[in-house]
Amino acid sequence: MAGDVLSQSEIDALLSALSTGEMTADDIKKDEEARKVKVYDFKRALRFSKDQIRSLTRIHENFARLLTTFFSAQLRTYVQITVASVDQIPFEEFIRSIPNMTLINVFEVPPLDGNILMEINPNIAYSMLDRLMGGTGASHSNVDNLTEIETKIMTNLFERSFDNLREAWANIADIDPALSELEVNPQFLQMISPNETVVVISFNSIIGETSGMINICIPHVVLEPIVPNLSVRYWMQSNKKEVSPEQTAILENSVKQSNLPVIAELGNAEITIEDFLLLLQGDVIQLDQKISQPLTLKVGDIPKFTVQPGKLKKRMAVQVLESLKGGDEVDE
């Protein structure tokens, strides 16, 4: 039943029908083939395109790498955080999917309206707390009885970790995340309407020997002003760096001040190694260049001009006669 999400009661009823013989696998296949109309669930309205979901995935893959680096430095232990999935679901479904007692950080992201949730599995959170307090990273989940000290330590850690989202979102929007509250019971969150579409980014997290999930919930109302920025076209345009006239002038001036070797060749000759070893002062080597022919002037290793030799203020010099065709091309 591709594309449909069955509830637990529907799954139980289907398994019961198969086990009692009321329905066979062939019946299910025929029923699936007969269905031509796809049911649309307005509670699960898809408000983001696949292209936009891919952009959000890329953004938070970068965020996961930044989080890995940040937590590794803070906790001084092995940390691995990767994106597990990116889905758009109703807010009510997200609340039902997380534990009844967990750590939920509510962040404001001005200048965008609304809040973003960061839910951390208690096993992960207490493992981090234990490492910060000098322990081995053991997890002792008791999230319903957080002390003021534990709350303060965790709040500071996750608030600083969420600053990495600013860098991950830099190409999309200039945000300034700020922690507004810490909640342990998701049922008390009345942030948006239960049917409001949210994007949930789930991260697989390993802290030392403890593993768990970290979820970020972003309501559609928060992303709505910057939805056009999530397109591939915007990413391609934003990656193009425009050079200002001042930068162009500085670059041109730097190039003009660069030194290049300029060589005027009088000619070439080939001799044997034996003749080379027998050379003495006063010996003459005949070149392949006639006196009446112009010389070749090379800039670097590239022939650029034909010249004639002479003197200028008691120093040897050459006078440019003409440019060589093809002199701008570099031989491969």
Automatic annotation (TrEMBL):
Q: What is its main location?
A: other
**Example GO biological process:** bacterial-type flagellum-dependent swarming motility
**Topological category with respect to the lipid bilayer:** Peripheral membrane protein
**Which InterPro entries does its entry note?**
CheC-like_sf, Flag_FliM, FliN-like_C, SpoA-like_sf
Point out the coiled-coil segments of this chain.
none
Which molecular function GO terms apply here?
cytoskeletal motor activity
SUPFAM superfamilies associated with the record: CheC-like, Surface presentation of antigens (SPOA)
Annotated ranges, domain Flagellar motor switch protein FliN-like C-terminal: 255-323
The family database entries (Pfam families) matched by this protein are listed as: FliM, FliMN_C
Classify the source by domain of life. Answer: Bacteria
Q: Where in the cell is it found?
A: Bacterial flagellum basal body; Cell membrane
Q: What keywords would UniProt list here?
A: Bacterial flagellum, Cell membrane, Cell projection, Chemotaxis, Cilium, Flagellar rotation, Flagellum, Membrane
State the GO CC annotations.
bacterial-type flagellum basal body; plasma membrane
| Matching Gene3D superfamilies | CheC-like, SpoA-like
Homology family: Belongs to the FliM family.
Report the protein name in the record: Flagellar motor switch protein FliM
Provide the species name. Viridibacillus arenosi FSL R5-213
